[in-house]
């Protein structure tokens, strides 16, 4: 028997989920829906106000994807997690002598969807955002990180299965509270972080090559023309990386604020050395350089060693990001400790 067009409740759930997410996210953020979608439901672009009156905001060039799911009823359960070896350095190995209990909401994901997200890599974060329609509570987890840090180590053959259960920590809740938006803001900068990490490594290699090449040629490192070239190159590198937006995330990841301050101090120190060397060269009083610059009483000057050490620390930020930041908000022992 014929009937008029009907709308299944699943479509209503989907629409209500999107509405709830938009309600909790800042008004200045732009939430775009993908239709039709093939594993990605939303792309969220981050904007920030540029004036105290909050009348104008600008795009930050930062975004994240989201896969939206919903359940009629939220059921909170508890799981036990244990300290474990860094899964990037070897197979999963847990210390069962220590246990932590965390609250989670379980959700079943199809492996086809998981594979789609995994094939995107980790450059742009993809969040699973789960809306509980009964309580209007919204929970989230970064799928890219969960796949690499939890799923694959625990079940390398997950593709042989049709579905997998994901444990979303209850602490990962999206609300009206601006504090609940911090993680989205930080993760939306991920592509900027990865770009900066590549630049740090490139600059480190260039500075190392310059120094080692001078030694290989048995050139006298007291040749101040070489040192000036080195310092000039370093100042140029500093000018480049100081422009990066990642430093604005210092309030989210404190190490960035510390390194930015150290970078400023190193820049001033190099500029001061540069001026003194130039002045001494012009007056042909090179012998006075070590008297004015304590670091230059050694060969190579301690300032050059300080520069190389600082760039080693900058490159290590990438390791810290991989081992620490990508574990934030995961249903793991370390994830709970960090959060």
Which features does this protein show?
single chain, 339 residues, alpha+beta, Trna Endonuclease, Chain: A, domain 1, 2 domains, 6-stranded mixed sheet, 3-stranded antiparallel sheet, 10 helices
Verbal overview:
With 339 residues, this protein is α+β, with helices and mostly antiparallel strands. The chain has two domains: 9-188, Trna Endonuclease, Chain: A, domain 1, CATH 3.40.1350.10; 190-323. It is 45% helix and 19% strand. The protein is built from ten helices and nine strands. It has a six-stranded mixed beta sheet with strand order 1-2-3-6-7-9. The chain has a three-stranded antiparallel beta sheet with strand order 4-5-8. Helix 5 runs antiparallel to helix 6 and helix 5 runs antiparallel to helix 9 (302-323). The longest helix has 30 residues, at 254-283. The chain is elongated, with a radius of gyration of 26 Å. It comes from Brevibacillus formosus. This is DUF4365 domain-containing protein. Residues 16-181 form the DUF4365 domain. InterPro entries: DUF4365 (IPR025375).
Tell me the distance between the termini. 57 Å
How confident overall, as mean pLDDT?
88
Structural class: alpha+beta
Strand coverage percent: 15-25%
Fraction in helix:
40-55%
Extended strand count:
9
Question: What's the oligomerization state?
Answer: single chain
Spatial extent as radius of gyration = 26 Å
| Biggest sheet: strand arrangement | 1-2-3-6-7-9
CATH class of the largest domain: Alpha Beta
Low-pLDDT runs of 5+ residues are: 215-221
Work out the count of structural domains. Answer: 2
* CATH fold node name of the largest domain: Trna Endonuclease, Chain: A, domain 1
